[in-house]
Amino acid sequence: MRGSATRPATRVADEAGEAGDAKADASETRAVDAGAPAEAPAAVEAGEASVPEIEVAEAVADAESMQAAIREHEAGATGEAHGTPAPVEAGEASVQAIEAAEAGADAASVEEAIREREATGEAGERPAKVEAGGLAESGVPEVEATEAAAEAVSVEAALLERDARASATLVPGAPAGELQDMLERPGTEGQAIQDMSQETAVSVEPASPLGDLDYHLLGEGTHLRLWERMGARLVAGGEGAHFSVWAPNARSISVIGEWNAWDAARDPLHAARGGVWTGFVPAARRGMLYKFRIVGADGALYDKADPHALMSETPPATASVVWDHAYEWGDATWLARRAERQGPTAPMAIYEVHLGSWMRGPGGEHLSYRAVAPKLIAHVRALGFTHVELMPLTEHPFYGSWGYQATGYFAPTRRYGEPQELMALIDALHQANIGVILDWVPAHFPNDGHGLVHFDGTHLYEHADPRRGVHPDWNTMIFNLARHEVRSFLLSSALMWLHAFHIDGLRVDAVASMLYLDYSRKEGQWLPNHLGGRENLEAIEFLRALNQAIHSEVPGAIVIAEESTAWPGVSHKVEDGGLGFDFKWDMGWMHDTLRYFGRDPVTRAQHHRDVTFRMMYAYSERFMLPLSHDEVVHGKGSLVRKMSPGTGGGAARLANLRLLYAYMFGLPGKKLLFMGDEFAQVREWNHDGQLDWGLLAEAEHAGLMKWVGRLGHLLRAEPALYELDHDPLGFRWAVVDDYKRSTLAFLRRPRQGAVILVILNFTPMTWTNYTIPFEAPGEWVRMLSSDEAQFGGAGHDGPERLIADHSAGGALPCAATLDLPPLTALVYRGPEVKAYDAAALELRESLAAEAEAAREGATAS
Fold it and tell me: Is the pLDDT assigned to residue 112 strictly greater than 90?
């Protein structure tokens, strides 16, 4: 029961303070929900018992197998007390009489117990309970046969009751219709029925999902599918679950949950191999809450959430939930074409979303994954975005971390629904031809007591030394990537989101903090690697392994690095010495650009390099141009407020924002825009509310969103704007050094299709008779002007056509002139690239011939 007073105790400790002291006293302070004791009582509290209807009937098949074995015993018995039982076929492992005989029990004692029960007519009584390590009260003299006799009596009773069509009458005199009420009844009677249901469950444990290869790969650091092996794994039919957890230094581990009243004595796990503890719990069912009760190496009790749980309770509650990934997908068409839709030569414009604050219900409540789907899809399609990027959905206790401090690396946050609801959202996005990228955080995790920190009483997932184990910026714990099992944990998490949830790519957060041992640390606060350097060699190895695994296991999936330094080769292939990412965020461009647009236009001439320098390194990596959430939080203000108003006030801010978006969509590189920036959210982003959608009632804000939509659709329609994003052949400056007038002009070129011209005026001045040079003559047709009234501009649209021609003796091969409107971006569509290049070649040859003729004429004279 979710509100039960017997919920597990949660250990509360200052984990950061424990980094240098592994000792913990068993009597240290623990926070107990609703006054619950440190250990849940054995008895079931009011309302705790919750056993599915007639669990005894689930053992009918096994009981029939037992009857067959007994009949064979009767037919072939020699009368000796320890006769050999009849052989059992494979699959009849639940025959208790045979098992008892194999253990040295007396099969005749089992048979005698059944006959005695038939003779007394006590088919409805609950069998005597066998105490752990003790004797039953049945009086059967052979100790070894006691458990088997009790089980046989129980299942024989079930058969008799089923045959009499009274299988629900587990307690004398109880009508069948009252079974569920009895199972949920408070006190000893409900507990007795629950105990009986467990005793009559299948006695032979189904095969463990963990095999020899799993233990090997886990210990090698190369296991990629731990979500199918570790944690709580329901058996076929859902009648019980295997539990497994890695805790090599634990003294003991039990599963505590709803089915056993959170009693650690009921379902202990046993130590297997490689530090893994495992066990089968017959009473566990889909949807039940549980935790691991761990007696740590320090002797303290830790109630831990399952690191591999597929679902968690809705925060602030912290228990794990027995769950599965059953879902019928309908996105096969998308998946078949995914690789071509998000490769280096594909158009990519990404809409970054925090689901909890994008849009909320009428009462301010979160929308579920399903409820948000149609609204998000309609919005994204209208704006022409190709992908959404979801900020982290891995379960996180602190909502204000936005998901970047996760405790559930295999569980989507329950705040917005169950895992299958998230699958439905992703499925719907795919069917609308929208890709899905997920933020994922392997750099660090929070120090919440129920999570990974100090998991088995030692620093298991994190480094023990705080100079490597504690992140100074966020007071979080840093994964110890030198541990093979930790690498398997993280690799499997990444692959699960791609396999089980059909995520199309991961954006890996805080890569720079992983690569450098001295990241955000002063001298003396960090430890060098074994070579004496500052590079985190284990992190480098992990990131390469991550990217290789993803590209091998999920062809077409992409991995994006948020890496803010000049680390070389982030998006280069591993075999070429790189880290293997598909794309890297261009953080330098973002900072330079926002700094430039924040300057008064009068002073921009002195900072022209901020908008031109990017092309000096643009092809050193496969870059993505981000205007992300990081720039509109923590007092930085909204994006529109970063724009200089100059002397034009709010209208000038919006004009600058339209100009900024045109600059971004025009440059080489994939694009990313944070939610709310498409309509100029004025307030700084607040995760505790929703976006200010009411602003769309104002023409200027609605016009800006229309401008973003036009840019998005233009990007998808024109190969010149995306096809050669990462090839220098796709870009050519037309005007680069006119810093005095703060203008730029450049060409974007495709392999095939029309050439695109982008002209940008970063000042509030109109430049008349402004000259744009060209390599060849031709006509250029205006496609967009950011100053059009429909986009919130002043209506200075610029000329509809530009005619580039060659005048003999001119300083330029070809040129066109125009009056360039203030704070405006103009986009023109020109000739086909092949025709343009042919015309340019012809012009160069003609000019060369003219020059040669002029030289010859000069010589002759």
Answer: no
Q: Characterize the bridge pairing of strands 476-478 and 444-445.
A: antiparallel
- Total residue count of the chain as it appears in this document: 861
In whole angstroms, give the CA distance from residue 652 to residue 10.
55
Measured in Å, how far apart are the chain's first and last C-alpha atoms? Answer: 106
Answer for the pair 601, 650: CB distance below 8 angstroms, yes or no. no
Per the model's pLDDT, the better-predicted residue between 101 and 807 turns out to be 807
C-alpha–C-alpha distance, residues 18 and 410, integer Å: 26
Mean pLDDT over the full length of the chain: 82
Task: Answer for the pair 160, 50: CB distance below 8 angstroms, yes or no.
Answer: no
Question: What is the sign of the dihedral through the CA atoms of 447, 453, 454 and 456?
Answer: positive
Nearest residue to 619 via CA among 751, 736, 725: 725
CA dist., res. 375 & res. 677, Å (int): 17
The rounded distance, in Å, linking the Cα atoms of 666 and 62 is: 70
What backbone torsions phi and psi does residue 231 show, to the nearest 5 degrees? Answer: 80, -140
pLDDT of amino acid 505: 98
Burial grade of 48 (CB within 10 A; 0-12, 13-18, 19 or more)? buried
Q: How many CB atoms lie within 10 A of CB 91?
A: 7
Mean pLDDT, residues 493-504 taken together: 98
Supply the DSSP symbol for 595. Answer: H
- Provide mean pLDDT across the span 799-828: 88
What confidence score (pLDDT) does residue 669 get? 98
Average pLDDT over every residue of 584-607? 96
777 contacts 806 by C-beta, under 8 angstroms: yes
pLDDT band at 108 (very low <50, low <70, confident <90, very high): very low
CB 386 within 8 A of CB 330: no
Which tokens hold the place of 495? 């692959």
Residue with token string 């660090």: 444
Displacement of CA 725 from its chain's centroid (Å):
27
Largest CA distance in the chain: 137
- The arithmetic mean of pLDDT across residues 383-400, rounded, is 97
Angstrom CA distances, 15 to 250, 362, 462, 527, stand at 17, 40, 11, 21
Neighbours of 587 (CB within 10 A): 17
Confidence class for position 548, pLDDT limits 50, 70, 90: very high
List Cβ neighbours of 257 (8 Å cut-off, separation of 6 or more): 267, 281, 284, 288, 289, 290, 291, 319, 322
- Residue 480 φ/ψ region, left for φ over 0, alpha for ψ in the -120 to 50 degree band, beta for the rest: beta
Q: Is the pLDDT of residue 72 over 60?
A: no
More confident residue, 195 or 485: 485
pLDDT digits (tens, 9 = 90+) for 411-429: 999 999 999 999 999 999 9
**What secondary structure does DSSP assign to 93-136, as a single string?**
TT-HHHHHHHTT--HHHHHHHHHHHHHHT-TTSPPPPPPTTS--
As a whole number of angstroms, the distance between CA 668 and CA 724 comes to: 8
Q: What is the pLDDT, as a whole number, of residue 860?
A: 78
Active-site positions read 509, 562
Angle at alpha carbon of residue 50, lines to 46 and 55, rounded to 5°: 140
Beta pairing, strands 444-445 & 435-440: unpaired
Residue position matching structure tokens 């004429």:
857
Spell out a b/e string for 758-793, using b for 16 or more CB atoms within 10 Å of the CB, else e: bbbbbbbbebeebebbbbbbbebebbbbbbbeebbb
- Cα angle 673, 677, 680 (rounded to 5 degrees) comes to 160
What pTM did the predictor assign? 0.77
- pLDDT at 38 (0 to 100): 36
Task: Select the more confidently predicted residue: 494 or 52.
Answer: 494
Q: What's the mean pLDDT in 570-576?
A: 97
Selected residue with higher pLDDT from 558 and 646: 558
Provide the token pair at 508: 């890996």
